[in-house]
């Protein structure tokens, strides 16, 4: 289904919840799965795997997001996959 997209860390890549709205993917409001490129522009707010609100720190050069269950994601990790 998303075979052309490189694997993302679970908190942004699981595709269960929309990382910007927290809405369940597949519901009317949650159908957009972010790509690494989109994540480079705007930090995720919710964990894609469990829908929890993540702790997000925005830096001048990127962002860092942490789910208490599924771990941390840094925008630098995503950049390495491009
Ligand atoms: Zn999570």
TrEMBL record:
Q: Which InterPro entries match?
A: BsaP_C
Query: In what residue span(s) does the Biotin synthase auxiliary protein C-terminal domain sit?
Result: 54-82
Keyword Lipoprotein in annotation: no
Q: Does the keyword Cell inner membrane apply?
A: no
Cofactor requirement? iron-sulfur cluster
Q: Which superkingdom does the taxonomy of this entry point to?
A: Bacteria
Keywords tagged on the record: Biotin biosynthesis, Iron, Iron-sulfur, Metal-binding
State the similarity comment.
Answer: Belongs to the BsaP family.
Q: Describe the function of this protein.
A: Required for the activity of the biotin synthase BioB.
Question: What protein name does the entry list?
Answer: Biotin synthase auxiliary protein
| Provenance organism | Mycolicibacterium mageritense (Mycobacterium mageritense)
